[in-house]
Amino acid sequence: MPGFPSPFGDDDDDLFDGYDEFVPASLPRPGESLDGHDVLTGADHLAFHRLTRDCFEERKVYDMTFDYNLARLNLDTRHESAGFRYGVKRGDAPDAIDPADIDEDAFDGGINRVLRAEFTPTTAFCPQTHTLTIGAFRAWNGLADRHEYGLVRVRAAPMHNQSEAENERLAELEASYLEAGDVAAEQDERVGVGSAPTEGTTEGGAPNRSTDTPS
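The structure corresponding to this sequence follows.
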């Protein structure tokens, strides 16, 4: 997907890091949902984020304000504290912000490896956070054969003004998915209750344009 026109020149490529560059200054700091877990850095982060780009492209998880694959937000130097950070769940680490944590042993004999993905939007009032995190969850877990994790658990960073409510919804969606073993099974009306999914992906994963503020 093309990026939005650059106000700084004809070619916006200089405004983005590469998918093969690990630039900590261009990434959000790991937040509460990654505390005590093994945060991916360097080549490990890059490998999973390239896979993320491909999963998001297949499932059409786009930031509709910027008109690009959501994975590209990690590379956008105009928004250096926004995007995803990842961490492999450690068994001895607390799940402090998971108010509806689920019994992972209930899913098909147990979850061998859990990856935690924390999304930091560009603003604390991002209206897309709901739809973008749900779209990311469905892309990663709906294409689970692409990676080594039994579950990718998605949470919004605490800087978002509705992070607690968003994370409760994500935990409920996760529990439904783990119970059914199928990401398609949780795509019902309960997912959007009380939310304002103004942009991002639709329930089916297709782009849904609007003119609201950026993520």
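The two ends are 17 Å apart (CA to CA).
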